[in-house]
Amino acid sequence: MSKIKLVFFALFAFSLSVSAQSTYERVNALQQDTVNSDRATVSASELESAAKMTPEEKAYRDQFISDLQATGRKINENAQVWEQETAKRGYPKKKTVREKAHLVDHYIFLLSTQLSDSRLNRFIDKQKVQDKITYWQNYRQALDRLM
User: Fold this and answer.
1) Which of helix, strand or coil describes residue 119?
2) What are the average pLDDT values for consecutive 10-residue runs of the chain, which has 147 residues?
């Protein structure tokens, strides 16, 4: 009789542990959603003000974002050319370095504009943008030393 109780208790404990594990995963997923929502930096008032953006402001912001993304793509394309030239010759061509310096200057200009223009800096983390500007300025100085 005690063996039957032991087997019954073991099966009951096993089924309980399986359900506890699946409950744990759901709670963990809910906690993850909560953690991600805590990182959001846009408040309800900011969302309301975004809805009140004029069509000109939206067009200006969209144009700026497309220019920023295009410059980033060009920098990445230049990095691929840079890598190919370095693999082939051991160093990049001067033309490639100059082109990258010009693109980095433009990218720094765009980031500075984003930081200073009130139409663009409503929903950004200003410290993060400032850190990017510092990073790219240091990168630009390294390019100057290379030229």
Assistant:
1) coil
2) 63 54 42 42 60 82 92 94 93 92 95 88 86 94 87
Six-digit token pair at 123?
């929903």
- The predicted model scores a pTM of 0.64
Exposed, middle or buried: residue 76 (CB in 10 Å: 0-12, 13-18, 19+)? exposed
Q: Give, in degrees to the nearest 5, the angle at Cα 116 between 114 and 118.
A: 85
- C-alpha neighbours within 13 Å on the C-beta side of residue 50: 13
- DSSP for 78-101? HHHHHHHHHHHHSS--HHHHHHHH
Please count the other Cβ atoms lying within 10 Å of the Cβ belonging to residue 92.
Answer: 20
Spatial distance between the Cα atoms of 47 and 38, rounded to a whole number of angstroms:
16
| DSSP per residue, 20-80 | HHHHHHHHHHHHHHHHHHHH----HHHHHHHHT--HHHHHHHHHHHHHHHHHHHHHHHHHH
What three-state secondary structure class fits 1? coil
